[in-house]
Design goal:
heterotrimer, A alpha/beta (165), B alpha+beta (174), C alpha+beta (398), A: globular, C: 398 residues, Cytochrome-c3 Hydrogenase, chain B, four-stranded antiparallel β-sheet, three-stranded antiparallel β-sheet
Chain lengths: 165, 174, 398
């Protein structure tokens, strides 16, 4: 995780976290066993909707961070517009409880995180590939850092490289 | 946010009541008469392309031409190309020059914008036809020549019009 | 099962049939909906998306920051300005800079031109799905006016790639204000004709009234965005919630409908078109003079770059902008696009390429509607619901 410009949670939301300077999002760090509890607390406060659920892979630190962005509609004044939940997971066999019973809106996003990072969401009723081909990407996790997409060189090659088809 | 003050604000609105039979008949008649009116007095904005060709607006990001005399071979254009359409090659020892592949080019104009000596520029042509895919790969000779527009086409100027939306005014042939 | 038939069906239970709709082009891109129907009532619907998936988030990790702009605009080229603005704003948040006021106004003008064009495109598709081919032609024809205006401003009809971090690529061309005002006057007249031909047309009304109802609570729960959520009575528009560009300085209303059916969503879009015209009128009249790129980068301009900026009003790409190295950190940004909210989350590790870019598009969030709203409706209502959601597959698949 990059060094954060730590700021105290000066918002009215009664939750432990730090306010990020760059975009005023409230960053809440939690662990897989406590994730559901944090989620429920947020939902009680009016955070009804998940905007994004994804992860960032940090092979150097040997971890993967699940990142959930939660927002609510017509929030009371003084509440942060965006809450970011961060959960550190191991890179080997990452497992985390599914949020689908808290927020229905994570349905497709958990499926996407599953196929892109290989994170298993325990309790998701329909954890399958959604965007990628289930056969071809059975064991490939495209958004992990060890999946490398080669960019072409700027020098002219015979027949414009291998990609011309 | 205060509801009355100027500035962006929400405003609640309602869908109208369901129409009664009489209203339905009236709206049917209105829609039909408008349709008939447009049949008699059509508002066509279709351009008869390729018989007519529009004069492209000033600064249109069309095809790209290299001014070989200005080029310093810094290869920034090839580095910035998001589609990897531009590549550098050795035109002479220690003389790098770019070439372009129009199979890939997306006309974003990044190469023109990054060139520190203005050696690349857009020409207002975007619709050349190639006989095969290999012709779309330009070499230095074709890349430094401005593409010619086909003859025997009527050039029209596109004018935004209050009544008709778009109007095409023929450009007088000199 | 016949291989020739367009729609394949399979019996999966007594009286339950499986119908595959797509993945040919059902209107605006390739997607498939797998329906389980009892008679002609949908009992289960499963949106099968991903036919135009390009893994943009991965591709973005291998390219310099500004090079991703043309990539991301290919999610929805009909709304190119709105879908890339969020990415540029996220970079600006990392850099801690704000574009100068004139650049903000130009961004607003292009964003609204795009919103109109995008709504007209979506409504055109909607009209043809309902079998109303006249309106399909009218919507697409009138869209051309706004595409033409955008071309004069940016130099490209659709793929504008118009922003630099900290500014825009070009200044307003001369005479743009007059042309824009002519276009607005023309379109205001046309809006009245739309009403007669489409919105108050009894046939269209009976196809839309009460169809695809999404309650306020369900809309929030499913996390749908854009005009769709506002038509269900939820006050949510990023232009108001997290103001960006020149929006906080302009006077406009964001319509809210409570009904939540396909008709409300349609009226919602048309009302938004009216508000966009209002925004455009104000923006071209109030636009301040000044630079169109952040001074931090203007200072680094060489003589050639300065000359071009003065004579052609074109901001060239300074090497400093190309080799951008935002400080380590994360930032999110969101933008209200035609179809809803674009969300970008960028992570920088201090290099000239992003460490991670997460993008969530409005259509991806709206695609969940098919799974949770379609059941209970008749198959014949599917086009009305699909069209009224304004779903755009390439945007959902990214």
């Amino acid at each position: 995780m990059a060094e954060e410009t730590e700021g105290k949670n000066e918002t009215k939301l009664p939750l432990e976290g730090s306010l990020r300077k760059s975009d005023q999002a409230l960053v809440v760090k939690t662990t897989p066993p406590e994730l559901l509890e944090t989620a429920n607390k947020l939902k009680e406060q009016g955070y009804t909707t998940v905007v994004s659920l994804s992860a960032v892979d940090y092979p150097k630190d040997g971890k993967m961070t699940l990142i959930v962005h939660v927002t609510g509609y017509e929030l009371p004044p003084g509440y942060p517009k965006m809450v970011e939940i961060q959960v550190d997971l191991p890179r080997e066999n990452p497992r985390v409880p599914s949020l689908i019973n808290v927020w229905t809106s994570v349905d497709f996003q958990e499926r996407e995180a599953y196929e892109m990072f290989g994170i298993t969401f325990e309790g998701h009723p329909d954890l399958r590939h959604i965007l990628l081909d289930p056969e071809e990407f059975k064991d490939l996790r495209p958004l992990r850092k060890d999946f490398v997409v080669k960019e072409e060189n700027i020098m002219l090659k015979e027949n414009w490289g291998d990609y011309r088809g | 946010m205060a509801e009355t003050s100027a500035g962006p604000r929400y405003s609640e609105r309602n869908v109208e009541e369901r129409m009664g039979l009489l209203d339905k008949a009236k709206m049917h008649a209105k829609a039909l008469s408008l349709g008939m009116l447009r049949l008699a007095r059509p508002q066509r904005i279709t351009l008869r392309y390729p018989l007519e060709r529009p004069v492209l607006s000033e600064g249109y990001r069309g095809m790209i031409v290299l001014n070989n005399d200005k080029c310093i071979g810094c290869s920034l254009c090839a580095r910035v190309c998001p589609a990897a359409a531009m590549k550098m090659f050795n035109a002479a020892p220690k003389k790098l020059r770019p070439v372009i592949n129009y199979e890939r080019c997306i006309f974003c104009g990044y190469c023109v914008d990054i060139c520190p000596v203005e050696a690349l520029y857009h020409v207002p042509v975007h619709d050349l036809v190639f006989e095969n895919r290999d012709d779309m790969v330009f070499d230095l000779e074709t890349f430094t020549k401005e593409p010619e527009e086909p003859e025997h086409v009527r050039k029209v100027r596109v004018v935004i019009d209050e009544e008709k939306g778009l109007r095409y005014v023929p450009v007088n042939s000199e | 099962m016949s291989q020739q038939s367009q729609i394949l069906t399979r019996r999966i239970d007594k009286d339950i049939l499986e119908v595959f709709i797509g993945p040919q082009h059902p209107g605006s891109g390739h997607m498939r909906i797998i329906l389980r129907v009892d008679g002609d009532i949908i009992v289960e619907a499963e949106p099968d998306i991903g036919f135009v998936h390009r893994t943009m988030e991965k591709l973005a990790e291998g390219r310099e920051w500004v090079k991703n702009q043309p990539l991301f605009e290919r999610m929805a080229i009909l709304d190119a300005a709105n879908c890339t603005l969020g990415y540029i704003m996220a970079i600006e948040k990392l850099l801690g800079i704000e574009p100068p006021p004139r650049a903000k106004y130009i961004r607003t003008i292009l964003a609204e031109l795009n919103r109109i064009a995008s709504h007209l495109y979506g409504m055109g598709i909607f009209a043809i799905l309902l079998g109303h081919s006249t309106m399909y032609m009218w919507f697409f024809g009138d869209r051309e006016v706004f595409v033409e205006l955008a071309e004069r401003l940016t130099g490209q009809r659709l793929t504008h790639s118009f922003f630099w971090p900290g500014g825009v690529r070009r200044d307003l061309p001369s005479g743009f204000k007059d042309e824009l005002e002519k276009g607005i006057k023309y379109f205001e007249k046309r809006l009245k004709e739309y009403e007669v031909m489409f919105l108050k047309n009894p046939v269209i009304r009976s196809r839309l009234e009460g169809v695809g109802y999404i309650s306020r609570q369900k809309a929030a729960e499913l996390g749908i965005v854009g005009p769709n959520i506002r038509a269900s009575g939820i006050r949510h528009d990023v232009r108001i919630e997290e103001p960006y560009a020149a929006y906080p300085e302009l006077d406009f209303e964001v319509p809210i409908y409570k009904e939540g059916d396909a008709l409300a969503r349609t009226l919602q879009r048309v009302d938004e078109l009216r508000e966009s015209l209002k925004i455009l009128k104000q923006a071209v009249n109030r636009i301040p003079e000044g630079p169109i790129l952040h001074e931090k980068y203007l200072k680094m301009f060489t003589k050639v770059l300065k000359d071009v900026l003065e004579t052609e009003k074109r901001v060239k790409l300074a090497p400093a902008l190309f080799n951008l190295r935002p400080p380590k950190g994360e930032a999110y940004a969101r933008v209200e696009a035609g179809r809803g909210e674009y969300f970008y989350y960028v992570v920088s590790d201090g290099q000239n390429k992003p460490y991670r870019v997460r993008v969530v598009s409005p259509s991806f969030r709206n695609s969940i509607v098919f799974k949770y709203v379609l059941p209970g409706h008749r198959v014949a209502d599917l086009p009305a619901i699909y069209g009224s959601i304004d779903y755009f597959p390439p945007e959902a698949d990214r």
